[in-house]
Design goal:
Blueprint: E1 3-7, E2 10-12, E3 18-25, E4 33-39, E5 46-51, E6 58-60, E7 68-73, E8 78-83, E9 92-99, E10 113-114, E11 118-122
Parallel strand pairs: 2-11
Antiparallel strand pairs: 1-3, 3-8, 4-5, 4-9, 5-6, 7-8, 9-10, 9-11
């Protein structure tokens, strides 16, 4: 069973940057597609970005395209989400998740394992 731990969240001013990390144990991340999702109270968890395991293709929600970058370190069981030009509407709990569907997906239900989440707050 894969365990995931997110880190790197915190409080940042609008326009600032954060880098979220997702560390895996109990399995090799290289074999999984990895997604980042976020959730605010009262709303469903929504996809932010994901990276495939088949060819490393990356995908972004329109709301973060051009500002966020997902990347992975093969062999080190780490995936990152670099978040730049942060906006108050990016405030949420961010989760990483993995799926054996090598291409990845925007559907949360496809993901097999989830981390506990890390809070990101964008506020002045």
């Amino acid at each position: 069973q894969v365990q995931l731990v997110e880190s790197g969240g915190g409080l940042v001013q609008p326009g600032g940057s954060l880098r979220l990390s997702c560390a895996a144990s109990g399995g090799t991340l290289d074999y999984y597609a990895v997604g980042w999702f976020r959730q605010v109270p009262g709303k469903e968890r929504g996809g932010v970005s994901y990276i495939s395991s088949s060819d490393g293709s990356t995908y972004y929600a329109d709301s973060v395209k051009g500002r966020f970058t997902i990347s992975r370190e093969y062999g080190k069981n780490m995936v990152y989400l670099q978040m730049n030009s942060l906006k108050p509407e990016d405030t949420a709990v961010y989760y990483c998740a993995v799926t054996s569907v090598r291409e990845g997906s925007w559907l949360a239900g496809v993901y097999d394992y989830w981390g506990q989440g890390t809070q990101v707050t964008v506020s002045s």
